[in-house]
Structures are given as structure tokens and as C-alpha cells.
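Late entry, evening session. Most of the bench is empty. Finally got around to the prediction I had been postponing all week. Sequence below, unchanged from the version circulated by S.P.
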Amino acid sequence: MKTKFLITSAVLALASGMPVLADGHDGQVSFGTVQVGETSVFYREAGPKTAPTLLLLHGFPSSSHMFRDLIPELAESYRVIAPDYPGFGQSSSPDAAAYDYDFATLSATVSDFADALELTNYTLFMQDFGGPVGFRLAVEHPEKIDGIIIQNATIHAEGWNPDIVGQFAPFWTNRNEETEAPIRAFFAPETTQWQYTQGATLTDRINPDAWTSDQAGLDRPGNHDIQLEYLWNYQDNVAQYPVWQAYLAEEQPDTLIVWGQNDPFFPIKGVEALQALVPSAEVHLYDAGHFALETHASEIGETVRRFMSR
């Protein structure tokens, strides 16, 4: 059965006083949805449609909301698109009987979403969950990838905090009520806030709307079970690490690494492993945590603009 695409748009002005763009756009962000099969995918978009495109792929437990400060930093010169995954943000959460909540399916949905928007080439910006999604896209369609930007997303076993591995390993080895308990703890409000604040500096810049928005999504009926399926399937991402490592080593894409160096999940060893694969990669470390954009959006935005201008 052919995948059906239906694009709807609801353009809502965000900020006034944005710079006027070369093709007449004013830098405001628009919001829309794309129907991919039975799934409604919400997205944010800004910037000239004729400009080079950045596809922003968010992490857990966030959504395109995590890019709210970065998008205006880039939209003057680039087309910026940030979708919400099924089960996240404003995208739909189909029943598990109608949608497989695994990363292969998720990546196929994002690929179909990009096709629906007629994105022939783009630079990937990947954070956390965005890494497994983006690297699947890159391996499947390397000809579409203009560049890769990695922000706190690992593709190496040594790129994990051993304490976090200790919580996931029993769950992946023998899934039952007992081994699920530490994983379900990731859905608690205090854990969501911790993910944003742990390791963060410039704490006066952290907007509590970030974790409040994420928690509202997690607390929707049935969402814990959806996230548990994604996290159960994350072991398949680990199995794919050699494939993604080979892609970087063989393709040598233009690569930028922007990393919160105090990340409680993915420490600096993951950066060093990426550099070994792509020696020409440009690396910028920030005194920040897992969600470095919350405190360093302007600094990261400037770095991305310089990278893209090459």
C-alpha cells in the first residue's frame, strides 16, 4: 500500500522584529503537520525555502520544542525544519497495533516526512534519540546528506555513562516488571527536570518550560508504554553502532560536534571516539549538560552558522 502524504499548514507568527530574508521571508516560525500513513507528524519550520536545509532531530523526552531558541539563530540564512516524532510533542500517538514504536519504524517515518516536504538534500542536526534516527537516514541515503552536526548523541558503547548502562542492561537482557522499574523512573517529573539541570551551568538561562513541556507529553495516557517500547528497542541502536561507525569512516562527511561536556548520559569519550572516525570533524565543547541548547543556544547557533557557511 502506498504511503499517503497530506500536508497541512497553520502558520503562526512567533517573534516580531526578525531580520528580513533574501527571498522575502521574515524569519517567523511556521507550524504544520504532515500525514505519513496513519501518523500525523507535527513540525516547526523557518527560513527561506530555497536556502540550504537543516533537519533538526530531537532527543528524549523532548520534541521540536527543544529547538525553539536555535531555530531563530539559523533561520536568517537557512531553511530549518524540526519534526516531532510519533509519541512526542504535538505529533500523534497511534495505537501500538497501528504503529511499531521502534527506531527502524521511526526513522522510516522521518524519511517519509522529509520526502513529503521534498527535501532532496539536508544537513542533519542530531541530539540524543536524533542520533539513531539520523544515522539510519544517512546510511540509507548518503547522497542526501550535506553535513552532520552531532550534539550529545553517541554511536559508541564507550560513549555511555556506565551507571546508565547498569540500569538498561538488565532490562534489555530480561524484560520483566522488576527490570522495567528503573526505566520507568525516567518518566518521573523529578527525573525529567534532572536531565535538564544535571551538569548545566548558566542555570539562570534554563527555562522551566522545557521540562514542564516534556513532562506534559510523558504524562499523557498511554505515553509511558510508548516510551518504554522505544527504550526497549534502543538496544537495536547499540547493535547498529558498527554500521554507523563504518559510514563515518568511509564517507567522511563534513562533521560538526557541539557537545555539553558535563552530560550525565554521554561523556566526552563519545566525542573522542567520533574524532577518531572523522579526524577532520570540528569540535566545540560547552560547559553544559545533556540539553546544551537550553543554556548555550546562541553560542551553538553561531558555531552552526560558521559551519554551514563553508
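Two things to note before I forget:
The radius of gyration is 18 Å.
Residues 1-25 have pLDDT under 50 and may be disordered.
Will write this up properly tomorrow.
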